[in-house]
Amino acid sequence: MVDRDWADFYRWTLGREPRPLFERVMAHAGTPGQAVEVGFGDGTETLALLDLGWRVLAIDPAPAAADVLLPRVPPDALPRLTIVTAPAQVATLPPLDLFYSGFSLPFLPPAEFDVFWAGLRAALRPGATIVVNLFGPKDSWAPDEAMSFVDRDRIEGLIDGLELLVLDEVERDGEAFSGAKHWHVFDIVARRPTVAPEP
């Protein structure tokens, strides 16, 4: 079973740099608009988005996440930040220009992942970008039926109709907060076209 003591995990990761996939995308991001981050955790990427001028809806089910984030938000950025302490699948997404979730969506149960993803697709404005890390079937945690895992065929279905910008598959042995594990991760960046494709 995966360790889900999120308060301790957020304290463990506090002070890290933004994740590489996030930085890779933000280096070429356009005009700041409405961003949504699911599983904002220690707040690293949320703070980076605020620093770049984005409006951010930050969603995390753990109250500890807000406790860790809020004291670090510059006062002039507070009006651009909305925090929702709730599971992602029950949160209402606004029309958005950027969606980011680093290693969080796999913790949604499969049926709830599907519902959330459908809502996310509906919330994308033309030109909006999705940036996510999803877990593959060779991940150590794959036997956990309460989590969601994808393969390449499933990813093709998830991003059908979107422009695929990045699809990197990584397998490695490493560490997690709960101990040693085998990571099987898909780094995905996809964008809604600004013009609808012809039928």
Summarize the structure in words:
By secondary structure, the protein is of the alpha/beta class. The protein has one domain: Vaccinia Virus protein VP39 (Rossmann fold, 3-Layer(aba) Sandwich), CATH 3.40.50. The chain is built from six helices and seven strands; from the N terminus they run ααβαβαββαβαββ. It has helices at about 5-15, 20-25, 45-50, 65-70, 110-125, 150-160, and strands at about 35-40, 55-60, 80-85, 95-100, 125-135, 165-175, 180-190. Helix 4 (about 65-70) links the parallel strand 2 (about 55-60) and strand 3 (about 80-85). Helix 1 (about 5-15) runs parallel beside helix 4 (about 65-70). It is globular, with a radius of gyration of 16 Å. The model has no long low-confidence stretch (mean pLDDT about 90).
Question: What's the order of the H and E elements?
Answer: HHEHEHEEHEHEE
What topology, given as strand order, has the largest sheet?
3-2-1-4-5-7-6
Per CATH, which architecture? 3-Layer(aba) Sandwich
Number-wise, the strands total 7
Largest sheet: 7 strands, mixed
Throw out a few tags for this protein:
globular, 199 residues, Rossmann fold, 6 helices
